[in-house]
Amino acid sequence: MTLDYLGVARQGQWLEVRAEVLRTGGSLCYAAARIYADEQLCASASAVFKVAR
Fold first, then answer.
1. CATH classification number, 2-50, choose in 3.40.190.10, 3.10.129.10, 1.10.287.3510, 3.40.50.1950
2. In the prediction, which pLDDT does 1 show?
3. Contact 28, 51 (CB under 8 A)
4. pLDDT of residue 21
5. pLDDT digits (tens, 9 = 90+) for 3-35
């Protein structure tokens, strides 16, 4: 999992996380997310997960 900080979020701001599954394979799942503070992009994340069977 990686997280890139692109801006700041101040106390009291509304935070919104928009996540999506990019691809699901036989044993791995790739996902990404963007974090917004009052509609301003403040962080971006991506991850690779092992699919549990």
1. 3.10.129.10
2. 94
3. yes
4. 96
5. 999 999 999 999 999 999 999 998 999 999 999
**pTM (2 decimals)?**
0.82
User: Can you read off the two tokens belonging to residue 13?
Assistant: 């701001």
Token pair in block for residue 34 = 């963007």
Instruction: Fill in the amino acid letter for 6.
Output: L
User: What's the burial of 50, exposed, middle or buried (CB within 10 Å: 0-12/13-18/19+)?
Assistant: exposed
Cα 11 from Cα 2, distance rounded (Å): 23
Task: Provide the residue ranges of all domains of the chain, joining segments of one domain with +.
Answer: 2-50
DSSP 11: T
Q: Report which DSSP code applies to 7.
A: S
